[in-house]
Amino acid sequence: MTRRAQRFTYVGLEVSRDTVTGYYDSDGRAFRETVVFDGVGDLRTPATRNLATLWYLIAGLSYYKTGAAHLVDLRGTPAGPRGLDLLRAALVDGLGEFAYRNDLDLRDVDVVGAGEWASASTTLDPARVLTPFGGGIDSIVSVSSLAADLDQALFVVSPSSGRFDALEAAAAVTGLPTVRATRSLDESLLGDGEPFLRGHVPVTAMVTLLASVAASADGRGGVVMSNEHSASVPNLVRGDRAINHQWSKSFAAELLIGDAVAEAVGATLDVASLLRDRTEVWVARRFSELVSYHGVFRSCNRAFAQSPSARATTWCGECDKCLFIDLVLAPFFARDALRAIFRAEPLASPAHEARLRTLVGLGDEHKPFDCVGDPDESATALHLVVARGNWADATHLAELARLVRPMSDPFEPRGPSRVPAHWLR
């Protein structure tokens, strides 16, 4: 294992009219990340700068992880109690998978050096909202399910290497205006030659805070996330720690982000997930009604590689994400329609049976480290598939379904939700 660093330092944040730049240091190794916004007003207002500071704190974890230092020095970066709560949780739980894979316990990390924090008041329009959009079924359902009288725009984050074609195709179907952010990671992160520790970071939390910056600068009073109920379910428990690949999509993270945003700008900006109390099965049924997106949506991670030359132009049909999306859509789509989407049948392939067993909770492995539903949702989808009868030739599906129990009613709301009433139809 690469030797852990001793000190990770937040060197400084620069905010210009349309750009935020974060500077970091890990034991003398300097890093810089820049995000350029398009379609918003001036970022230099006190309220928007406060939100940019929250982003800066969480974005630093992309560089902190290179050495997993024992000490994090904020070096005067303004941070209030709720912002520090968010940072510490993101460091321990948001980097939970990273720590698990690298056999680390980040609960030993000290965070010091926070500067004085001052809240900033601002007036935002609650009827104008910004919806982060990824081109998959969750964000498409959110875009299509918000109250029609809201002034909605998409928020799209692209790498400096160029926009994602799969995402842009789905965004075009919405017909909505798009606010953009172009994110330039430090180039040293993009290669494999450096002796860095590597692993998953809480990207959704970073995107949520970038969307909050954009919303504030554009006078919008809402950030509409698309994280459903099972995002809160961990992949596994190691000792007394729950490890969740989707931690930054979880309800716990939503609460922490909401509290930190309120500390930064008051109660004028709502940040919540529209799908929080919904299952992936409910989302899939709703998506099946949105026919105009069926030919353009994409959830396969291989379409979103940093390098354009590495991006898949179709669903790969081999990964856990492809298998899960095929499974959860199969109860609501004609089989030939799914075959046209995936150009294969991941669900029917015997070669994928072991991974399917894992998805429904029968395998020897934990739930995959990917954005897939929990085993109860997958088992329920499998029962719904078998009940339709149009997959009878895939005999392993019925055999597996007999070994698992479905949820009582996957279409009923589950758990708490922070969605403002005026976002609902």
Give the helix/strand layout.
Blueprint: E1 7-15, E2 19-26, E3 29-38, H1 46-59, H2 61-64, E4 71-73, H3 81-94, H4 96-101, E5 110-112, E6 125-132, H5 137-145, E7 151-159, H6 165-174, E8 178-184, H7 203-217, E9 220-225, E10 236-238, E11 241-243, H8 251-265, E12 270-273, H9 280-288, H10 320-329, H11 335-342, H12 353-359, H13 375-388, H14 395-401
Parallel strand pairs: 1-4, 4-5, 6-7, 6-9, 7-8, 9-12
Antiparallel strand pairs: 1-2, 2-3, 3-8, 10-11
Helix pairs in contact: 1-7, 1-8, 3-8, 5-9, 7-8, 10-13, 13-14
Plain-language structure description:
With 425 residues, the protein is α/β, with parallel strands linked by helices. The protein has two domains: 7-116 and 177-188 and 200-273, no CATH class; 298-401, no CATH class. 33% of the residues lie in helices and 17% in strands. The protein contains 14 helices and twelve strands. It has helices at residues 46-59, 61-64, 81-94, 96-101, 137-145, 165-174, 203-217, 251-265, 280-288, 320-329, 335-342, 353-359, 375-388, 395-401; strands spanning 7-15, 19-26, 29-38, 71-73, 110-112, 125-132, 151-159, 178-184, 220-225, 236-238, 241-243, 270-273. The strands form two sheets. The protein has a ten-stranded mixed sheet with strand order 5-4-1-2-3-8-7-6-9-12, with helices on both faces. The protein has a two-stranded antiparallel sheet with strand order 10-11. α5 (137-145) links the parallel β6 (125-132) and β7. α1 (46-59) runs antiparallel to α7, α3 runs antiparallel to α8 (251-265) and α7 packs parallel to α8. It is globular, with a radius of gyration of 21 Å. The relative contact order is 0.13. The mean pLDDT is 96.
